[in-house]
Structure to design on (363 residues):
């Protein structure tokens, strides 16, 4: 498929048949960089994520922001008519992303063997709770269960308290990001190294986080202990820099600062809590910098949106949404210089692009 766009993934066609977070997040990252993403949903309510969380004008905010720039088609993959339509779509695609329970697509007649016969160049990414094979493969997958399994939760929180889960979908989004990495690798092998065929990628939700916890096995084997919770005082959670401490203190205007002290900052105030509490945010940051102390505001959604720094970098951007009105959204990392295109923002309704498929079939 040709495209006049200068975004890096222009011309790449992606089918996403998933729900809630992992597969749609993976696809949305590709859409941000210019890929044409076609989301296939069941007729009626579509992806359950459309109905989750706070809504404005009957548009759920998380759906309206997160799954941007997709085409949205509805198909009943148990229907012979829609199965044929789906086959036409698959034959035109480069990438297929899904996060259904293992075996679900096979039962519909669209497992990898069938998809690869329809389109040998197809790259298929499957994200599931426990992977496509193994004794737990058929268990349902949940991000917070995966985070607990990965080793990440064990190092989050204070050592004298219960372990914590962090406040967003880390396992799902990490798996989506790993999917993008795998897709880029296989497309390189397919199109640059001329391997011709696509490949099948199997990602379990806990695996990317387990990889990030890279020293937990070696510590247990060679030192006799695994990484454990140290609150904020051990920034690496494994005892590399016991003389470095990180703590959060509140400023006079109610904002919080994260402050790191280390041997290279001997001028740090003896009572950081009192030092920060006596100053508003900007003054506290300026005075700490003068003393050689590293600090940053603990940002939230409001302060990020109001920050001139993040807006100048393009990390926070403004869009006009047809139903939500003016909307502040995250920018697009990684930043790719040399692209003349401005990233668009579009959140279609269920089945809004059904007529578009007719043009694909004609080709």
């Amino acid at each position: 498929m040709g495209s006049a766009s200068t975004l890096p993934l222009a011309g790449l066609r992606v089918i996403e048949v998933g729900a809630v977070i992992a597969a749609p997040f993976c696809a949305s990252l590709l859409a941000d960089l210019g890929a044409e993403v076609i989301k296939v949903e069941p007729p009626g309510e579509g992806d359950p994520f459309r109905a989750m969380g706070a809504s404005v004008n009957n548009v759920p905010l998380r759906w309206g922001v997160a799954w941007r720039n997709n085409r949205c088609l509805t198909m009943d993959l148990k229907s012979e008519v829609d199965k044929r339509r789906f086959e036409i779509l698959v034959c035109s695609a480069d990438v297929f992303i899904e996060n259904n329970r293992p075996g679900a697509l096979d039962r519909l007649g669209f497992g990898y063997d069938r998809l690869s016969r329809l389109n040998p160049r197809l790259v298929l990414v499957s994200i599931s709770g426990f992977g496509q094979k193994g004794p737990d493969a058929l268990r349902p997958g949940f991000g917070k269960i995966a985070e607990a399994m990965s080793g990440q939760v064990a190092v989050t929180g204070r050592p004298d308290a219960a372990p914590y889960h962090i406040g967003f979908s880390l396992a799902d989004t990490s798996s989506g990001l790993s999917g993008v990495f795998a897709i880029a690798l296989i497309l390189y092998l397919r199109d640059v190294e001329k391997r011709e065929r696509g490949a099948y990628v199997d990602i379990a939700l806990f695996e990317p986080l387990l990889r990030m916890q890279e020293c937990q096995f070696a510590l247990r084997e060679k030192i006799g202990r695994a990484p454990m919770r140290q609150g904020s005082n051990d920034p690496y959670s494994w005892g590399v820099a016991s003389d470095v401490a990180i703590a959060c203190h509140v400023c006079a205007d109610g904002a919080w600062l994260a402050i790191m002290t280390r041997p290279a900052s001997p001028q740090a105030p003896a009572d950081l809590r009192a030092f920060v509490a006596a100053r508003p945010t900007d003054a506290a940051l300026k005075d700490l910098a003068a003393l050689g102390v590293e600090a940053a505001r603990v940002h939230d959604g409001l302060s990020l949106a109001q920050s001139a720094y993040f807006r100048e970098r393009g990390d926070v951007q403004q869009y006009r949404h047809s139903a939500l009105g003016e909307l502040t959204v995250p920018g697009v990392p990684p930043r790719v210089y040399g692209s003349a295109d401005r990233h668009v923002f579009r959140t279609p309704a269920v089945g809004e692009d059904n007529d578009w498929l007719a043009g694909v079939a004609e080709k």
Summary: Residues 13-212+332-362 form a domain with the Rossmann fold fold (CATH 3.40.50.10540). Residues 170-192 form the longest helix (23 residues). The mean pLDDT is 86. The first strand starts at residue 13 and ends at 17.
